[in-house]
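Recap from last week: sequence in, structure out.
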Amino acid sequence: MTTSTRGATKVPAVLVLEDGRIFRGRAYGAVGETFGEAVFSTGMTGYQETLTDPSYDRQIVVATAPQIGNTGWNDEDDESGRIWVSGYVVRDPARVPSNWRAKRSLDDELERQDVVGISGIDTRALTRHLRERGSMRAGIFSGEAVAPEADLVARVLAQPQMKGASLYEEVATKEAYVVPAIGEKRFTVAAIDLGIKGMTPHRMAERGIEVHVLPATASVDDVYAVNPDGVFFSNGPGDPATADGPVALMTAVLERKTPLFGICFGNQILGRALGFGTYKLKYGHRGINQPVQDRTTGKVEVTAHNHGFAVDAPLDKVSETPFGRAEVSHVCLNDDVVEGLRLLDQPGFSVQYHPEAAAGPHDAAYLFDRFTSLMDTALMEGQRA
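Predicted structure tokens:
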């Protein structure tokens, strides 16, 4: 929730955490109040892609990089039609943006979209606090919204928690749309929008895929009405334990043995469809510098992440599921969190991170090629049959 008035910089502001920790600074962006889950992102670049990622819905994002806003804001790098974060926390905002593509400053864009932020606080201390105590509810208050600390803490505690939150329908498209293949069309993919980033269908289009992006509420009939060669489940916000609809749709796709690929929230949906549980991480993985090992090749990749929940699947064995054998294909090298699943008896896989690399490294771009290989193999087998 955000209420704001577009206004001045240098206005006093306060960040209040649910455990009573207080940080004082200056307003950044819009002036007013906002609430959300306080999380930190370790990326040194890519703040525009982060802010416009629908997976950050209802989250107050803390930038661990000390200076933010150097490259301003352009009109090309948005990952959706708006900023989704509830609030933004930075230490040292750039006074003047310096980039040939910049159209305005980050501060101006936050103000234009009524996003309440705070600057001038010790983000290193805040990040350490969140690492030790875990992500938690928070509020940013500036201008007339500032009140006695006890009142502000009480207002933060009155907000809903992220665990149990069903958010994917809030951010998904309401109407289906098509992203045409670039060059010769090779495949058709039905992409379930649970909070999809714009670069994701573009990466598929680059590989000759015509992408039909469907609402989160799409039925199995809607999916197969486009005659897909493959089905994709996107990233998205909230607790996967609430996503019974997408899990049922994923189950129907698995029953038909259509090639499928899921990322982030889609990985968690696949986990649930296979019979695994999910759980909330203490402080999650967010940023563009997370090390992950692809256990099928042994290769270590530097990857882009944004997730606060994970799949509870065994790392040390192949699991029997209703759809055959499955195994953990990728693992985070920082904490052994499951970062990918792979079906062994039918065409399907998922990863917990963001291979579209917007923003982020391109180490995982091969996963889109892996998806096209699954569809290519399925088509050839169908022709032989």
